[in-house]
Every structure is written in C-alpha cells, then in structure tokens.
Amino acid sequence: MSVRYLSCGDTAFSVEFGNEISPEINGRVMALHAAIGQAKIAGVVETVPSMRSLMVCYDAMATSRAELEPAIEGLIARGLPTDMKARQVTIPCCYDDAEFAPDLAEVAERTKKKNKEEVIALHLASRFKVYVLGFMPGLAYIAGLEKSLYLPRRSQPRVRVPRSTVAIAMDMTTVYPFESPGGWHLIGRTPLWMFDQRREQPVFLAPGDSLSFQRIDRKSFDRIAREVEAGTFDWAKLVRSA
After folding, report:
1. Strand ranges, E, within 1-157
2. Does the 4-77 domain belong in CATH 3.40.1190.20?
3. Residue range 208-220, pLDDT digits in tens
4. Is 87-241 assigned to CATH 2.40.100.10?
C-alpha cells in the first residue's frame, strides 16, 4: 500500500494510506497513531486520525517535517498491526418511541424490509467500529452498518435533530452529541450524552472503539437519562477491553 505525505501548513503534515474508506486502511491509521504515541518522537505535539490518513502536528522550534518523515517511515516499515486491542462499547438505545425514531417506517419501506422490527434487528446485529470524530465535539462516524440498510442522506436535512439521537446514512451510524441540524435518518435515541464537560474525559467514544447497540424500553431510557443528567450514571459498565 503506497503512503503519501501531504503538507498541512508549516507545523503539520498528513500521512495518507489510500483513497478509499475501509477497515484495513483505518486500522493502519490507528496503528500509526498508537505507534507514534508510544515512540514519543521529539517535537511531535499531537497526531489526529481521520478515516484514511493521520495528521502529524509538530513544534517547528523543536523539529521539522524533514526530520519526522524518516522516523515515521521507519515505524511503518517495521509493520503496523491492524488487529490492535480496542475498547468494546455498548450503547443503550430506545427504538420504540415515535418521537425518538421518526424515520424507522420510511427506512423499512425504502430498504424493502417487512417492518420496523426488521430494521431494528439489523441495526442491533451490525458490527460497528468508530472511525473518526468530527463535525462537532463528540460526534463519531461509526462504520459497519448492515449493507441492506444503506441509504443516502435525506434530500431535505432537518433544522433540528435532538441530542443523543441515533441515526444512519450510507454505511454508517452516529449519535448526535448536541441538538443540531442533520440529514441522516433518525431511528432511535440513547439516554447517554456523547459529550459531557463534567466528565474527566468529556468525549465518550474514541477512534478505534468497537461498538454495539443494546435495545432498551422507554422506562429504562427514562431511568438512565435521569442518572446521566444527575451525574450518577456508571459509565464504566458500558466499556470493556477486547
């Protein structure tokens, strides 16, 4: 696989692994992200993963791109494992309330499913992975949606999508961290907040996470939502190491 180095201003450059979005390419991006962090290369300020590239930000007073590229090439040459251990995260989701899932019936019709329950079952069975965070703090682009549910974005985006809405588009799902405009198909809602500045780590999901959804009813949704709002919810029970 060819690797390209592209300038991103005078204190950053991008290491690009390909032109397509795939688990293999994203796995290499995340592996290089981890390798640079472990190597503690002098002058590197941070690395920012995307779906198919890694941006390397550096202190121009301490190093240069000319010095960093060979060091990074050496890490790549030694091999980048794409089967790294990742967190296994479970997201509770309520699909049963019409307010939470206004697009379920339309998704079922457009994807030629028998009913809304079939859409829900396929979403629950999908094997998801967080590729990147972007668009707004805490919004994760999560790939791995069951292929028979693929749909383009809505032709007419909504002006308001409530916080914590679970939505799908193309081969992805996401959870809106804030109320915002949005053009994805709304199929459920989680009582969790994807971004909460009260937590030590405000953003809940991270690139590389493996993710699954767990169906809950409205009663469970309301109970968890109260705990989240009060700051008493036990987030650790949703996460385990692979």
Report:
1. 4-7, 12-16, 44-49, 53-58, 87-93, 128-133, 140-143
2. no
3. 899 999 999 999 9
4. yes
